[in-house]
Write a structure and sequence with these properties.
homodimer, Dihydrofolate Reductase, subunit A
Chain lengths: 185, 185
C-alpha cells in the first residue's frame, strides 16, 4: 500500500522561501543535493508524484520534466484547469491534471504508485491541504541552518488540533538536517 | 570568554506553548529530562542564567529556586521593576534584577559567568531581543515531534535580515531532537 509522503526544505524558523519569494538561500547545496542518499532513496521509493499548479509552473518549459525531472514517474498536478497544451511525456513519466480536489489527486496517485510511495512535492498550500485532510502518512522535513525571519511559512492553516508525530529518522546531509516523522492518525 | 546560549523546546512548527498557553504537550518527557546528557552538560557549562520576568514568575514560590532549580548559579532577571521581596539565595545562586535593558543584563551575566556560559532560559520575548541585538553566540533548539498548529511562535519579530547559523551538533534525546547551532555574526 502506497505511503503518502509530504515534505519540504525549510529554514529553522519554518520558512520555505524568503521575504522576496526566493528559495535560493535554502538551496545553496543544490549542486550536491542530487547525489545524496536521502534524495536517491526517495527517487527509488517513489511511484508517483503529487504537486500543485504553482510547482508545476516553476519549470520554464513544462516539456523539460520528461527525461530531466528527478522523479520519472506518473505526476499528478492538482489544479483548477489543465494547461492548454499537454506537456511532453515518456514511457514512465505521464501527467494527469486533477481538478476535483485533494482527496481525488491522492487517490489517483496512490493507485498509480502501486506498492511504492506517493511523494508530494512543492509548496505550502498543497501540503497544508493534505495534512488537514489527514491524508499524509509521513512528514519529511529538511532543516537548513538559517533564520530567514520572514517569508512563506510551511506549517500554517493546519486546523485546530495538535498533529502527533513519531520520529522515524534523523540524518545529517551536510548543513541540512533531514528529519522524518510518521504521522500518528 | 563566556558564550551566550539561547534556546528552547519547541514543536516542529515552532510553537513554545499551545493555543491555551500550556507547555505540557512539549514536556511529556519532563520526568526523564533532568538525567539526559544534554541537560547535564548544560548545567556543567553554565556560569550564569538570564531569564525574563515571566519565566521568573513561573515558580509558584520564588524562594524555591535556591537549592531546587537545576542551575545553581547567579541568575539575572530582566524586568521593569525588582520584586518587593528579594528571593532566597544560596552561596552559588544569587539574584540580580536588571531594569536597564538587554545589553546590560547580558553584560552583567557574562561578567558573572567567567569562562563558563551564559544560558538564557524561558520565553520568546527575551530570546528575540537577544537575537535581534546580535548578542547570542549559540542557539540550542529541541524539536518535539508535534505540530501544535497554534500558540506562541518562538522565532518571530527577529528583524529584517537573515540570521546565518552553523550546525554544531544534532543529538536524539528520546523523542526530542536537540539541534545546536553557532550564530554567524
Amino acid at each position: 500500500m502506497a505511503k503518502v509522503i509530504v515534505g519540504t526544505t525549510m529554514s529553522l524558523d519554518g520558512f520555505i522561501n524568503d521575504r522576496n519569494g526566493s528559495v535560493s538561500q535554502l538551496y545553496s547545496d543544490f549542486e550536491t543535493l542530487h547525489d545524496t542518499d536521502v534524495l536517491q532513496e526517495s527517487i527509488k521509493n517513489t511511484g508517483a508524484v503529487v504537486m500543485g499548479k504553482e510547482t508545476f509552473a516553476m519549470a520554464e518549459d513544462p516539456d523539460s520534466y520528461a527525461g530531466n525531472y528527478e522523479y520519472q514517474v506518473p505526476i499528478f498536478v492538482l489544479c483548477h484547469q489543465a494547461p492548454a497544451k499537454h506537456p511532453k511525456e515518456t514511457e514512465t513519466l505521464k501527467f494527469t491534471f486533477v481538478t476535483d480536489g485533494i482527496e481525488s489527486v491522492i487517490r489517483q496517485a496512490k493507485a498509480a504508485a502501486g506498492d511504492k510511495d506517493v511523494t508530494v512535492v512543492g509548496g505550502a498550500n498543497i501540503a497544508q491541504q493534505i495534512l488537514r485532510a489527514g491524508l499524509a502518512d509521513e512528514l519529511h522535513i529538511d532543516i537548513i541552518p538559517l533564520l530567514l525571519t520572514d517569508g512563506l511559512q510551511y506549517f500554517d492553516n493546519l486546523g485546530d488540533e495538535t498533529i502527533q508525530l513519531e520520529k522515524i529518522d534523523v540524518t545529517n546531509v551536510g548543513a541540512r538536517t533531514s528529519l522524518r516523522f510518521r504521522i500518528v492518525q
